[in-house]
Write a structure and sequence with these properties.
Chain lengths: 302, 264
């Protein structure tokens, strides 16, 4: 009945995917763009690359209005989406590369250099002539990436570039992105659900949720702002009274014999020595809070 | 321009990877052709005429429609709707490439392959069946015939593209296409020449675009039309080609605007 009703009278609701955000990214920066599912990350990337027209506001990328999608603009950017393919399924990847060479009007000499460089960076020499349909997911992702950047875009938008890849492949891809950023002085904006991607690649992060920017700055200052504490992990030798422990600091978890305390940065040393003095301790470690936890904390705040 | 040449070549290579299914598709075409061919051979024995068609004219008509059908009236653009729906259109919008020309180039690659096969098939048919083929010798007719075939090619391309653009608004791009194919089978004249229909129906059909896809070019070739009829037919045909072209352009622009690509 519901589906029948929706056939006759459909109700539309306007949802703001991105609302009043503004930021500036300098040449050569590698910025992480993160947020929970549906936060508006992809929408923003689409606006920046010229796929979506913002109802309000101004966007300028490389001095162009992206939405005009002028060839001179398109030749300098690339949007790579983990789940969109441009490779010709039945043909070897090299055929798509050669087509892109013509589409972007790359000169032979430059093409050959970039082609060689990308081939060795991505380590894909032996699969260039294998039909795409016979490649594994990881191999295909590499090829998709290579096809997207064979014109060496100055601005690269990467939407979930490591999605669905195994740990090793993720690591390799990360290294590649870093190398590309340095070698071609490219500006890269990357979205990812894997904190590792962001942690290892980006100095600066922009966190977006409900279509709004909730943080924009250095990754380290994010930690300072939202988690200005260290985690002290203690393993007790003998039972400790929870009441006594309370005074030491904020208890994160306590499951005898393991206790995890959140202690403000300045008080770390004094707290640690107090613990060692007053309790029988098997083991004690001081750690930085996990970036995942910090981000989760940011997400849940409104 | 080289990019469009490579697209055509890639399409050709792509078809080669599905050799078996392509050959099967051609076999299907031949069987279809032979069925109609033998049917008309029985209905129209040598020396008899039906509504102005002798056996040789009719069989030439049937062979001709089959050739034009497989070369002119074949288009890869049936995938446009799916591409819009899947969001893959993005890949084209973000590259300096013309989407129409991209598909047209794909069609060229497709047609090149089909022409090669058609030539082989028709040669075989001529050697084996020795049909009483009508050979047009008047240069004007041949010239007009070629011109109207080219118009037909463009008209068909745009019509198909138009159907694909439904994808901007609805995921159900195939239903209208099936109706289109059915209509085409009847109105374009691939089963019989349209002028054997009752005169009123035929007069109405003269104003529809379908008539100019198959029937009209072949009538020119067979020399069945007067000079005035050719001119008026070509005018209607040119009108439709441009009209459909402009409609496609307009709908494309409208579609792009509503194409948010969000969540696709």
């Amino acid at each position: 009945m519901g589906s029948l009703k929706s056939l006759v009278s459909r109700k539309y609701e306007t949802v703001k995917a991105v609302d009043n955000i503004s930021f500036k990214i300098n040449e050569g920066e590698l910025v992480g763009f993160i947020g929970p599912n549906g936060a508006g990350k992809t929408t923003t990337l689409k606006c920046l690359s010229g796929l979506l027209y913002p109802t309000l506001g101004e966007i300028s990328v490389l001095g162009f209005n992206p939405y005009s999608r002028k060839p001179e603009f398109l030749k300098q950017i690339a949007l790579v989406m983990g789940q969109k393919n441009q490779l010709w399924w039945d043909l070897p990847p090299i055929d798509t590369f050669l087509l892109n060479k013509e589409i972007y009007g790359i000169e032979n000499e430059k093409y050959n250099i970039v082609f060689e460089e990308l081939t060795s960076l991505l380590d894909v020499k032996d699969i260039l002539k294998v039909p795409v349909k016979k490649l594994s997911l990881g191999q295909r992702m590499k090829m998709e990436l290579m096809a997207s950047i064979i014109h060496t875009p100055k601005v690269l938008f990467l939407d979930e570039p490591t999605i669905g890849l195994d740990v090793l492949m993720q690591k390799k891809l990360r290294e590649f992105i870093k190398e590309y950023n340095i070698r071609y002085k490219a500006t890269i904006i990357l979205t990812s659900h894997y904190m590792q991607d962001v942690e290892q690649l980006c100095k600066r992060v922009i966190i977006i949720n409900f279509g709004k920017i909730i943080f924009d700055g250095q990754l380290s200052s994010l930690v300072d702002k939202y988690a200005p504490y260290k985690k002290i992990r203690i393993i007790f030798k003998e039972y400790a009274d929870p009441k006594k422990l309370d005074k030491l600091g904020e208890i994160d978890t306590f499951q005898y014999p393991e206790l995890i305390l959140n202690v403000p940065n300045k008080k770390t040393n004094s707290t640690a020595s107090a613990i060692l003095k007053n309790f029988e301790v098997e083991d004690i470690t001081i750690e930085d809070p996990q970036i995942e936890d910090v981000i989760a904390k940011v997400y849940t705040q409104k | 321009m080289k990019k469009y040449y490579i697209i055509a070549r890639n399409t050709w290579d792509e078809m080669l990877t599905y050799r078996v299914s392509f050959v099967m598709w051609r076999v299907r075409n031949i069987i279809q052709l032979l069925t109609i061919y033998f049917l008309w051979q029985v209905i129209l024995p040598p020396g008899k005429t039906i509504l102005g068609y002798s056996q040789s004219l009719m069989l030439t008509y049937i062979l001709g429609t089959s050739l034009i059908d497989s070369v002119v009236l074949s288009s890869r653009t049936y995938a446009v709707g799916d591409e819009i729906n899947s969001g893959n259109l993005m890949n084209f919008l973000l590259r300096p490439i013309n989407y129409f020309l991209y598909w047209f180039s794909k069609d060229i690659g497709d047609k090149a392959m089909n022409i090669c096969f058609s030539i082989v098939e028709l040669t075989l048919i001529f050697i084996i069946l020795r049909p009483p083929f009508f050979l047009q010798t008047n240069h004007f007719y041949i010239l007009f015939f070629i011109f109207s075939v080219i118009l037909s090619l463009f008209m068909y391309f745009f019509l198909n593209f138009l159907l694909g653009l439904i994808g901007f608004w609805s995921p159900e791009v195939w239903a209208p296409r099936f109706i289109f194919i059915t209509l085409l089978g009847f109105f374009a004249g691939s089963l019989f020449p349209l002028d054997i229909l009752p005169k009123t129906i035929y007069e109405i059909m003269k104003f529809l675009p379908f008539t100019y896809l198959l029937y009209f070019p072949l009538e020119i070739y067979l020399g069945k039309l007067s000079f005035a009829e050719i001119l008026s037919g070509l005018s209607i045909s040119i009108f439709w080609t441009f009209a459909i072209y402009f409609i496609v352009k307009m709908i494309w622009q409208k579609g792009l605007k509503s194409y948010t690509a969000y969540g696709r």
